[in-house]
Each structure stands twice: as structure tokens, then as C-alpha cells.
# Entry
Amino acid sequence: MADLQALAEAVINGQMEQAEELTQAAIDEGVRPGQIINDGLIAGMSVVGEKFKNNEFYVPEVLIAARAMQSAMAKVKPLLTEGEIEPKGTVVIGTVKGDLHDIGKNLVAMMFEGGGYDVIDLEVDVSPEQFVGAVSENNANVVALSALLTTTMPSMKDTVDALVEAGIRDQVRVLIGGAPVTQSYAEEIGADGYAPDAASAVDKAAELLASA
Ligand code: B1M
# Structure
């Protein structure tokens, strides 16, 4: 019988081959793809997120777990029939203009993916106009901005302003983060929320969407 608990454990432990095998076994047994994702992959990544928040896991463990999750996810994704699993939301994410740091942003993106969101990753050095374009095109409900340099933080404000100018500010929750970023900066620039780490970012987005 398909063991989704073992699949979650394989993700937590970053055992890519085992995660793939357990996923394939569950598929072969006819377990619904949505159940594999929710009770195996997302369940595993939620534990990883908790451990990361509590400093029981560090960046390498999270990256290895995310790699296991993503390779198992690749087996399930083609089987998902339209609407079988409702994404929790669509997140447009990127590191802001002028900033090339992407390690933290990638962790945040992986946590969102592992948390059941559709993620559009614009990578690094993303201009306010690119954020605005991607939010409109994908009908995103969260835009997640990362900055690691004090000199690029103002681009977060420029992005909020560009969303206002494009008339789509009300359609999207703006979440910001990165080492130099603070809650008070989020308030100052009119963002909806700030998160200090990747796992909290997913929690914060859920909170913002619930109160939207
Ligand atoms: Co750069 N760098 N760097 N760097 N770099 C810092 C950030 C710096 C603090 C180092 C220092 O001087 N002590 C400093 C910034 C100083 C400042 O502005 N206050 C700095 C500098 C100055 C620079 C350059 C200007 C250096 C130069 O060329 N003279 C240059 C800038 C290039 C550019 O971006 N235009 C530069 C370049 C680089 C590398 C290319 C060499 C490399 C980046 C490689 C890459 O990302 N692919 C690099 C690195 C690795 C660092 C340090 C060492 C590590 C950053 C990192 O990846 N941390 C960093 C010093 C440090 O932080 N100790 C430094 C690990 C990562 C998991 O953490 O990114 O903080 P972090 O992400 C966390 C949270 O912040 C949060 O969640 C993540 C996981 O918990 N988070 C979010 C991040 N985004 C979030 C978004 C959210 C929510 C949470 O919601 C949307």
C-alpha cells in the first residue's frame, strides 16, 4: 500500500531517489496525484520549513529536501488533470532590480512551491515593470520581492509604486524580505507584509490572502 508518510520522510531527509520511487509506487497504485502532493510532498516540505525556522535545519538541508521534492513533483505534475488540485495562489517572485543575490529568493520560491502555490520565478535583477507585467499576465495574488543590498531596497518601493500606477495594487499582496529588510520598512513603503525567512514567507502569504 502506498506509504505517503514514508514519502514525506524521504523529502524531509532529502532522499531524492527514494522520494521518486515512493512517488512512482503511489502513482502505480492509483493514488490520486493531488493526494500524493498534499499528503506526501507538501507534508514533507512543511516539516522542512518548520525545522528551518527553528534552526534545526540549515540552508543545505533545505536545498537537498527541495531537490527531492521537485524531482518527485516532476513525476506527478503531468498526471494532474485540470482543477484536480487547486493551487493556494499564484506567486510572482524575484530579486529586485540591481540585485543579483538569489540563494534566499530561491529558498523562498521552493517553500512556496512546496506549500502548494504556483510560482512564477522572474530570477534576479527584476525591474518594477517586469514585476507589474508578470502580475498582470499571470493574475497573481502575491508578489514576493527579495533584496540583499541596502542600495537595492528602494526598488521595492518603486515596485509598489509601479503596481499602484498600473492600477493593480489592490489585486495583489506585496510581501518583502531579505537580510536588510524589516517590518518597519515594509510599512514605510506600503508593502502588505514582511517575512524574516523562507518558511515564514509562506505563512505570511497565507495570512495576507486569508485577510484579503
Ligand atoms: Co553579496 N553582499 N554582494 N554576494 N553577499 C551581502 C548581502 C553583504 C551583506 C556582504 C557583506 O558585506 N557583509 C553585502 C551587502 C551590504 C549591504 O548592502 N548592507 C554584499 C555586497 C556588498 C555585495 C556586492 C556589492 C559586493 C561587490 O561586488 N562589491 C555584490 C553585489 C552584486 C549585486 O547583487 N549587484 C555582491 C555579490 C555577491 C555574490 C555574487 C558573490 C554572492 C551572491 C551569489 C548568489 O546569490 N547567487 C554574494 C553572497 C553569497 C553574499 C552573502 C555572503 C550571503 C548571502 C546569502 O546567500 N545568504 C551576504 C552576506 C551574508 O548575508 N552573510 C552578502 C544565505 C541566504 C539563505 O540568506 O539571502 O538572507 P538570505 O535569505 C534569507 C532571508 O533573508 C529571507 O529568507 C532567506 C532564507 O531564510 N529572505 C526572504 C530572502 N528573501 C526573502 C523574500 C521574502 C521573505 C524572506 O519575501 C518575499
Notes: Strands lie at 90-95, 118-121, 142-146, 173-177, 193-194. The two ends are 41 Å apart (CA to CA). Residues 59, 98-105, 107-108, 144-146, 148-151, 175-180, 195, 197-198, 201 surround CO-5-methoxybenzimidazolylcobamide (CB under 6 Å).
